[in-house]
Write a structure and sequence with these properties.
Elements lengths: L5 H11 L34 E2 L5 E2 L1 E5 L26 H13 L5 E5 L6 H18 L5 E5 L6 H10 L2 E3 L7 H7 L5 H24 L11 E7 L6 H15 L3 E6 L17 H16 L4 H6 L14 H8 L6 E2 L5 H4 L7 H10 L7 H5 L12 E2 L8 H4 L1 H4 L12
Parallel strand pairs: 3-4, 4-5, 5-6, 6-7, 7-8, 9-10
Antiparallel strand pairs: 1-2
Helix pairs in contact: 2-3, 3-4, 4-6, 7-8
Keywords: Iron, Iron-sulfur, Metal-binding, S-adenosyl-L-methionine
GO molecular function: catalytic activity; iron-sulfur cluster binding; metal ion binding
Pfam family, one: Radical_SAM
Length: about 425
């Protein structure tokens, strides 16, 4: 590793970071260096990839690992101790200089930094915190910083990380405790959740302090997030939805990210041979939005899954699957129904629902009025009533909507 130059290290450690999905930057405080002596960077402006600000703008991040060496041997991780991969390691100062160099070239607006565990959890966390401290204090960097933290590191190090970073995240790794014990026996679910609880209290205390005193230091203003691997163990979609809901409620997370398991070179024999369908990951994100923005309870989302397998359907989205299973809730009258009922109509999002509620104060809405607020009125017709529209039975009308998409068959499929 000592013989690698910076560019070679960057190629290895940027590629190693691609398995980490939890790098969105939504929710951070707005900062810039205008009028501030010695400052550099901001959390605002146009970006080119990968992360999004609260108003939807794209923010580019330098996304790397401090090192892909690790003393742990988690079966699902390509950087595990027994993995036959090329190793590299940055020093804290090299990451600082890379970040500043990329920022000055207008390539990035922030840093996402994670790491394998080297020597010990405390030593690795010290190096991660030093990167953030140096950027903030030595160079006046005011851009976005997201740090992946290590749950069994000293709590004082996690506290220091929160003083310098916009967002912190701790991965729960797998949806179930049994899966974690089987595939990552060196990690503890209780320890992970204990660290997440400590971060929650730190974030709440920081917000309270900044409300009371203007000069009070902030603590991870963009909150915390986590990530779980889908398809590496036997957890069903119903299990994953329940687990995500518990994490949101217990630790006030900004996001739970889902990462479809991908077979890795020299894989352990306890892992599945094939990756799950990528559509499964997509359906879980849709179910996540149902709970966060559409008012669905976890049990309602889980009810859209197959009763026998516990899996969400892949051919239709979970909101439509729920509507077809609970047809007695439809059709919904767009001129009378409350917001909660309108949000359950497949094809209607929060923005369209707010538009309907505003417009119906002035006139009774026809089908064409609803069509102006949505992308496809065909998906909505079976589930709503308008001034000039009333569907036939849901079973008949929804059949074309729920029909699976046509797929091209493989010529030489077995």
């Amino acid at each position: 590793m000592a013989q690698l130059d910076i560019q070679a290290k960057l190629a290895i450690l940027a590629d190693a970071a691609k398995y980490d999905a939890s790098c969105a930057s939504s929710g951070t405080a707005k900062r810039d260096s205008a009028g501030k002596k010695g400052g550099i960077g901001s959390t605002e402006g146009m970006g080119i990839c990968h992360a999004y600000a609260p108003d939807g703008r794209c923010i580019s991040l330098l996304k790397i690992l401090l090192t892909n060496s690790c003393i742990f041997d988690c079966h699902y991780c390509i950087n595990r101790k027994s993995s036959n991969v090329r190793r590299a390691r940055f020093t804290a100062e090299e990451v600082v200089q890379l970040t500043l160099s990329f920022y000055r070239r207008n390539y990035i607006e922030g840093l996402f930094l994670s790491s394998g565990i080297i020597r010990s959890s405390d030593y690795t966390m010290e190096q991660i915190v030093e990167v953030a401290r140096s950027l903030r204090e030595d160079h006046g960097f005011r851009g976005y910083i997201h740090l992946k933290t290590i749950p069994d590191a000293d709590p004082k190090l996690l506290e220091l990380a929160g003083r310098h970073a916009d967002r912190l995240s701790i991965n729960v790794e797998l949806p179930t405790v049994a899966g974690l014990q089987r595939l990552a026996p060196e990690k503890s679910a209780a320890q992970i959740e204990g660290a997440m609880g400590a971060l929650r209290h730190g974030i709440e205390d920081g917000r309270d302090a900044t409300r009371r005193y203007k000069a009070a230091p902030g603590f991870a203003p963009a909150g915390q997030s986590t990530q779980m691997i889908v398809g590496a163990d036997a957890a069903t979609d119903r299990d994953i939805v329940a687990r995500a809901s518990t994490l949101y409620d217990r630790y006030q997370l900004r996001r739970v990210y889902y990462s479809a398991f991908s077979p890795i070179p020299d894989a352990s024999t306890v892992l599945p041979l094939q990756r799950p369908p990528l559509m499964r990951e997509h359906r879980l994100y849709q179910s996540d939005w149902m709970m966060r923005f559409y008012g669905f309870a976890p049990g309602e989302v889980a009810a859209a899954a197959d009763p026998a397998t516990g899996m969400l359907p892949l051919d239709i989205d979970p909101k439509l699957a729920w509507a077809l299973k609970f047809r007695e809730a439809f059709p919904v009258d767009v001129n009378r129904a409350p917001r909660e009922a309108l949000l359950r109509v497949p094809g209607l999002g929060p923005k369209a629902v707010d538009g309907i509620i505003t417009a119906r104060r002035w006139r009774r809405l026809r089908l064409e009025d609803v069509a102006r607020l949505t992308r496809s009125i065909a998906k909505l017709r079976p589930f709503l009533i308008a001034e000039d529209w009333r569907p036939t039975t849901i079973a008949e009308a929804a059949a074309p909507v729920a029909r699976p998409r046509r797929e091209q068959l493989e010529l030489f499929a077995a």
